[in-house]
Amino acid sequence: MTMTLPGELASLGLKSPVLLAPMAGITDLPFRQIVAGFGAGLVVSEMVASQEMVQAKPGVRERAELGFGEAATAVQIAGREAHWMAEAARMVEANGARIIDINMGCPAKKVVNGYSGSALLRDLDHALRLIEAVVAAVRVPVTLKTRLGWDDRLHNAPELARRAEAAGIAMITIHGRTRCQFYKGHADWRAIAAVRDAVSIPVIANGDITCAASAKTARTQARASGVMIGRAIQGRPWLLSQIAAGLEGRAVPQPPRGSALAELAGRHVDAAFGFYGTALGGRVIRKHLGWYMQVGGTPAPLRREVLTAPPERLQACLRSAFDQPAVAA
């Protein structure tokens, strides 16, 4: 039986309830375009530091780069000062972003020590000043990604969500862990339901969703409008389309294998080289190739050959790397 897309998501221009999470060093333009090619409700850029973007710090603006005609794309910004957040939001809107996402969930020490990301869960008044500044600065929808709270004693995501909705936030994504959990233990999808009770805007469940079965469970327990997939997509850019098919009761498409997987990896290599240049692109793409080969069941000697090959030999090495029986994806 086909599942109807919630109107609250359709109103944001989304075509599927399965979204790609922002991931530092992973969800760059080449990867987002490959994921979007398989089908995604929304793809989100790497987190962009607002002040560094406005001040044109080298390497920062590339994280917010949008492709020609790229649809259903959000650019995620982070920061601790309302002025820089608003200016960055204006810039990414002018560059064509369809949605602007505010990061208040990153648990990394570097981000938290800069009073950004999930550090803002400890000061909701300041968090709201940032939200209000961004919403006032742009015309496109503004969304928010955060966690359940700072720690087990401070589960204040429902309060943040209520205040964020009143300030104009159009959708909120909740990772089902606190900041102090980082990525340990298991995401608490049931706890996200408290956020669902607090607001009328769409709530997206995030954390430990790896397949259609876990997506169904997370969505049910959280009573969420949709799900957001992060680490599980590494080496599997087709995963969102598989999960969407499972949620909608359609036949789940088979992942590419053998020569088809080699061709996909090769296109990703070409896209990385075109975006970053050969030298930097060759370094950036290595982690993705490692994940592709892990999924494809490439033997260790061939993996080493690919990961140490010079850029001009990568395509030839890829063809042999996937020319053998693949493990299940």
UniProtKB/TrEMBL annotation:
Source taxon at top rank: Bacteria
The EC number(s) this enzyme carries: 1.3.1.-
Positions contributing to FMN binding: P22, M23, A24, Q76, K145, H175, G230, R231
Cofactor: FMN
Domain DUS-like FMN-binding: 19-305
InterPro entries cross-referenced by the UniProt entry: Aldolase_TIM (IPR013785), DUS-like_FMN-bd (IPR035587), DUS_fam (IPR001269), DusB-like (IPR004652), tRNA_hU_synthase_CS (IPR018517)
GO molecular function, one term: RNA binding
SUPFAM superfamilies to which the protein is assigned, alphabetical: FMN-linked oxidoreductases
Keywords, alphabetical: Flavoprotein, FMN, Hydrolase, NADP, Nucleotide-binding, Oxidoreductase, tRNA processing
Active site (UniProt): C106
Family named by the database record: Belongs to the dus family.
Role according to the record: Catalyzes the synthesis of 5,6-dihydrouridine (D), a modified base found in the D-loop of most tRNAs, via the reduction of the C5-C6 double bond in target uridines.
Protein's name in the database: tRNA-dihydrouridine synthase
UniProt source species: Profundibacterium mesophilum KAUST100406-0324
